[in-house]
Design a protein that fits this description.
Elements lengths: L1 H4 L8 H10 L12 H25 L3 E10 L2 E11 L4 E7 L6 H23 L5 E9 L2 H9 L1 H7 L4 H9 L6 E7 L10 E2 L13
Parallel strand pairs: 3-4, 4-5
Antiparallel strand pairs: 1-2, 2-3, 5-6
Length: 210
């Protein structure tokens, strides 16, 4: 105990430290970090690049765009990465941007929440009166996110059925609410102002008719 109080822990077994913590009715969380600050910064920068480029593309195609729209509705709080409005069909688009796809269930749940609340948020904050709400999940066009989507294809195909050419056409000319998944080729060149929509395709399963 004297060594613990003086901070001399280098030679002490983890088991002994846990027993001391247990005797004090305390927890002893142990974690390993590798350049954690740098990693967080890179993730934030990657997210900002994806958000900026999908927003620029939507604006080019006639969408009115708002970024990082925060909300608090009956205790439900959060922020929508990109909220877009197309006035001709009066469609809202709720864009969720992920630099990596870690928790599939949580991603779908949070996206569902934002889509459900979006009409009220859009009406109260921007005066957009929508007749339909669409959703778009944006991922970087890298091997790891693509493998994750393929591994969970049964769920992802149902949640985000629109892909590839069909999705690009819908973004350019939406006629009704849709749900899609978009991989972005992020151009790392300095001064690159727009993203390119990846033309690589992921195999999708045909959902059985109800």
């Amino acid at each position: 105990m004297s060594r613990v109080e003086r901070g001399r822990l280098d030679a002490m077994p983890i088991g002994k430290l846990r027993r001391i913590a247990a005797a004090l009715e305390a927890d002893l969380p142990i974690g390993i970090r590798w350049r954690g600050g740098d990693l967080d910064r890179l993730i934030d920068e990657g997210h900002a690049v994806l958000v900026g480029r999908i927003a620029a593309t939507l604006r080019d195609l006639g969408w009115d765009v708002r970024l990082e729209v925060s909300f608090s509705v009956y205790g439900e709080r959060g922020s929508i990465d990109v909220l877009a409005w197309h006035p001709t069909p009066r469609i809202l688009l709720v864009v969720e941007v992920k630099t990596e796809l870690v928790a599939i269930e949580e991603t779908l749940r949070k996206h569902d929440q934002k889509v459900r609340l979006a009409p009220r948020i859009a009406a109260e904050q921007f005066g957009w009166l929508a007749i339909g709400t669409a959703r778009l999940l944006v991922l970087p066009s890298l091997s790891t996110p693509r493998r994750r989507v393929e591994r969970h294809a049964t769920v992802m195909d149902v949640a985000y059925p629109l892909r590839g050419t069909s999705l690009r056409r819908w973004i350019a000319s939406p006629t009704e609410p849709a749900a899609g998944l978009l991989f972005l080729d992020v151009d790392g060149r300095a001064g690159a102002g727009r993203l390119s929509l990846s033309r690589r395709r992921i195999r999708t399963r045909t959902s059985p008719a109800n």
